[in-house]
From TrEMBL:
Gene3D superfamilies: 2-enoyl-CoA Hydratase, Chain A, domain 1, 2.30.42.10, 3.30.750.44
Record protein name field: Peptidase S41
Classification via InterPro entries: ClpP/crotonase-like_dom_sf (IPR029045), CtpA/B_N (IPR055210), PDZ (IPR001478), PDZ_sf (IPR036034), Peptidase_S41A (IPR004447), Tail-specific_protease (IPR005151)
Family: Belongs to the peptidase S41A family.
Signal peptide start and end residues: 1-22
GO annotation (BP), single: signal transduction
SMART domains: PDZ, TSPc
Compositional bias annotation for Basic and acidic residues: 429-440
UniProt-listed NCBIfam families: prc (TIGR00225)
Length: 471
């Protein structure tokens, strides 16, 4: 049998404008399934192809027609399957290192427009104020309506230092917002950490990349060194983390649970789509790589933990939150997560191109499907600094057209419609007369703001647990 490379993604909830999907590379045998061809439908396809070639108002190249047909086949399946041309496939591979050029926006498509899932921290989009749920309706002076998602992403990428104008429609804002962003080389250090109080550590994972596990180990070692004593509590912040590399999610979970504990399992139609990934070195290390989790400080696997999540926590971050919740290793706090519980496989098809195909659903250790439901926090704490829509009625997987259904239970009411069952009043309504505050801005050099309401609630909970343990 012919060997073919296959990339496995439990990656970002959409494509990244100026960012790249992170993947796990493995090799599998190409399957030669004996499937009967739908002769009548293929005849209809060739008839349409011939009619376009002969009668369309302008000449059309064969390559363009075939490419558009492949694109249509994949985008018609679900929000995450797609065709990657040579440039898109190359960008995907380059992005596994966490360095890429562009704006730094994770995007999807809705009603023909580009919809922002999440801006990535410390990028031009984030600094310009692009928000989850924004609809990009123009790129420079070109309407987005009618573009494919790949075409829109290509336009947003470009040489660092060059500018692009985004025209954005935002819910609750009457007039379009026009932002001019300067493209940059996006370098993301996926793990940031600090002591938020003596004895209490804070670790933020912004995205799951190739080296996220190693960076987490470094961060934990540094926190214990800076504290000069075992930690009393730890906050793992996965808010607005769009996901990434599956091995990264396994590594982060493995740092905190018992060896060989089940982290996630997947189910699909083919045998290679069925996996059980545990907190064991072969499931998060590259071949011949030293085990960076082996020498973690004593107490890491037992220190009281709170995991912060919100609607921007997707895919790989949901795997971590779900596993730690199922193993009762941490208390999950925040708001319901995005709900991307599917696995995409990147299959090269020749000439430097590939298809991104949804091949499996993944499940938490207790058999919960995250798909279109997300992770429900143990303690619901909304962010009073965010607009109400971003706490309860923002964009999630269940709102995307053609999303896969959840195989083990009813889906929640779509979040952009009234009556969302997950809606919970904020713990503390901000401002005077119900006015919304602006999101808390970080001071230069800050990892997390001291005014971050959800972080402070997590810290208070950990201190309360410490008092109870002392008693």
């Amino acid at each position: 049998m012919k060997q073919k490379a296959k990339f496995i993604l439990v990656g970002l909830a959409g494509l990244l404008a100026g960012a790249a999907l992170t993947v796990n590379l493995s090799a599998i045998a190409d399957k030669e399934a004996a499937t009967a061809l739908p002769v009548a439908e293929l005849r209809a396809f060739t008839d349409v192809f011939a009619r376009i070639k002969n009668d369309y108002v302008e000449p059309v190249e064969d390559k363009k027609l075939i490419t558009e047909a492949i694109t249509g086949m994949l985008t018609g399946l679900d929000p995450h399957s797609a065709y990657l041309d040579a440039e898109g496939f190359k960008d995907l591979q380059v992005g596994t290192q966490g360095e890429f050029g562009g704006l730094g926006i994770e995007v999807g498509m809705e009603d023909g427009f580009v919809k922002v899932v999440s801006p990535i921290e410390d990028t031009p989009a984030f600094k310009a104020g692009v928000k989850p749920g924004d609809l990009i309706i123009k790129l420079d002076d070109t309407p987005v309506k009618g573009m494919t998602l790949n075409d829109a992403v290509k336009r947003m990428r470009g040489k660092p230092g060059t500018s692009i104008k985004l025209t954005i429609a935002r819910k609750g804002v009457a007039q379009p917002i026009v932002l001019t962003l300067t493209r940059a080389v996006i370098k993301i250090r996926s793990v940031k950490s600090t002591l938020v109080d003596p004895g209490y550590g804070y670790v933020r994972v912004t995205q799951f990349q190739e080296h996220t596990g190693e960076l987490l180990a470094e961060a934990l070692n540094q926190l214990y060194k800076d504290n000069k004593a075992p930690l009393k509590g730890l906050i793992l912040d996965l808010r607005n983390d769009p996901g990434g590399l599956l091995n990264g999610a396994v590594a982060v979970t493995a740092a905190f649970v018992k060896p060989d504990s089940l982290v996630v399992y997947t189910e699909g139609r083919t045998e290679d789509a069925k996996m059980r990934l545990t907190a064991s070195r072969e499931h998060y290390l590259r071949p011949m790589q030293a085990d960076y989790l082996k020498n973690l400080p004593e107490g890491v696997k037992s220190v009281p933990m709170v995991v912060l999540v919100n609607m921007g926590s997707a895919s790989a971050s949901e795997i971590v939150a779900g596993a730690l919740q199922d193993h009762k290793r941490a208390i999950v706090m925040g708001t319901r997560t995005f709900g991307k519980g599917s696995v995409q496989t990147i299959l090269p098809i020749g000439n430097g191109t590939a298809i991104k195909l949804t091949t499996a659903r993944y499940f938490t250790p207790n058999g919960r499907s995250i798909q279109a439901k997300g992770i429900e926090p143990d303690i619901v704490v909304e962010d009073p600094a965010m607009p109400e829509s971003e706490n309860g009625f923002g964009l999630r997987e269940a709102d995307l057209d053609r999303h896969l259904v959840n195989p083990v239970g009813a889906e929640p009411v779509p979040t952009d419609k009234p009556g969302d069952a997950s809606k919970t009043p904020p713990a503390d309504k901000p401002g005077k007369n119900g006015e919304d505050k602006k999101p808390v801005a970080l001071e230069p050099g800050e990892i997390v703001s001291k005014n971050d309401f959800q972080m402070n609630q997590a810290l208070n909970l950990l201190k309360g647990l410490q008092i109870m343990q002392g008693r």
